[in-house]
UniProtKB/TrEMBL annotation:
Keywords: Transferase. This is GNAT family N-acetyltransferase. It comes from the Bacteria. GO terms for molecular function: transferase activity. Residues 176-299 form the BioF2-like acetyltransferase domain. Gene3D superfamilies: 3.40.630.30. Pfam families: Acetyltransf_6 (PF13480). It comes from Salmonirosea aquatica. The keyword Transferase applies.
Length: 332
């Protein structure tokens, strides 16, 4: 069993070699410390710094032999509710594949003790889509259940597996027709290097307003994302001549996952469906970059309900379903 923070505990590895762990707590996202796993961008200090760093608290399981973190949990809070993470699509635990559930339960209990001591009433945890790492999703579900978390939300998440097969071969015939229509119209598609955050935001917000949907981030958040993370936050556009008619902000989550984070169209071009052309380009980009999975996210309307037409569109693009769960725990 693991003891309290700063009290190392010996835990046998499968090979029988002893290994020492201790729990660390930090308010700077563990800047300068290495993880023993490939952390998702949203779990790394460079992205955490674009969120609400003044309210950030992090816990990690530290291997004192290898001097690397083998598990992390980050949260921010507003005084009554703690989120992991509030302004990111995912948070919660991330860990090496060989850690036992008992060790992760102990880490979560430390987070809970802090929440109770600071009069936090509610802890909300956004988990990664199951497709990111199915084995870890199963383990973390067990950990949250053992810690008496309940399911706050459960949504369908869509993703496209990237293979050597051409994009056009995996999409519905109706989307093939739209793709060819875009090409016949002479539309071009490209990565927008050094994008202007204000211009990107204007396009996104105008598209959302015309659909009656709010935009999930403000101009300051988008500016921080594009300026501070230029190699991870990429903008791709479809153009009719020099006019942008479709755009998306995509995020390198890690070396094998690209998140199609914030897509938008000029609704005047809806009969062409330039988003199909944009996704075709993303797929080719993923093929050339060694990406294995393109995350298309959840499909929700402005009320937070699942939108059947958007789900059907993603499936017409060859997307598969997985689950994305948000957990919560109420402290009384």
């Amino acid at each position: 069993m693991m003891r309290q923070p700063h009290d190392p505990v010996k835990s046998p590895l499968e090979k029988g070699v002893p290994e020492t762990y201790e729990i660390k707590k930090d308010t700077a996202g563990f800047a300068g410390l290495e993880t023993a796993f490939e952390a998702y961008l949203f779990q790394r200090v460079e992205h955490l710094a674009t969120q609400r760093p003044e309210n950030l608290i992090s816990w990690g399981l530290w291997n004192t032999d290898s001097r690397r973190l083998v598990a992390v949990f980050h949260l921010d809070h507003d005084g009554s509710t703690a989120w992991s993470l509030a302004q990111a699509p995912l948070g919660g635990l991330q860990a090496t594949s060989d850690l036992p559930a008992d060790s992760l339960v102990t880490l979560v209990k430390e987070v809970e003790h802090w929440c109770i001591a600071h009069r936090i009433q509610q802890l909300v945890v956004k988990s990664a889509p199951v497709a990111y790492d199915e084995n870890q999703a199963i383990l973390l579900r067990l950990v949250y259940q053992r810690c008496c978390f309940t399911v706050r939300q459960r949504h369908v998440n869509h993703h496209i597996m990237v293979t050597s097969t051409p994009f056009i071969d995996g999409i519905h015939p109706s989307e093939r027709r739209r793709l060819r229509k875009c090409l016949r119209a002479g539309f071009t598609v490209e990565q927008w290097h050094n994008p202007d955050p204000d211009q990107v935001y204007t396009f996104l917000s105008e598209s959302r307003q015309r659909q009656g949907y709010p935009l999930s981030l403000d101009i300051a958040q988008l500016r921080r994302l594009l300026i501070r993370l230029p190699e991870q936050a990429l903008v791709f556009v479809v153009k009719d001549g020099i006019q942008i008619i479709s755009l998306t902000v995509s995020i390198w989550v890690n070396s094998r996952i690209l998140y199609n984070f914030c897509p938008a169209d000029n609704l005047d071009y809806r009969t062409y469906s330039p988003m199909v052309l944009l996704n075709s380009f993303l797929y080719k980009y993923a093929q050339s970059s060694g990406i294995e999975l393109i995350d298309l996210g959840v499909s929700l309307d402005h009320l937070g309900h699942e939108k059947a037409s958007l789900m059907r569109f993603k499936e017409n693009l060859g997307a598969e379903k997985s689950e994305k769960v948000t957990y919560e725990k109420i402290f009384i």
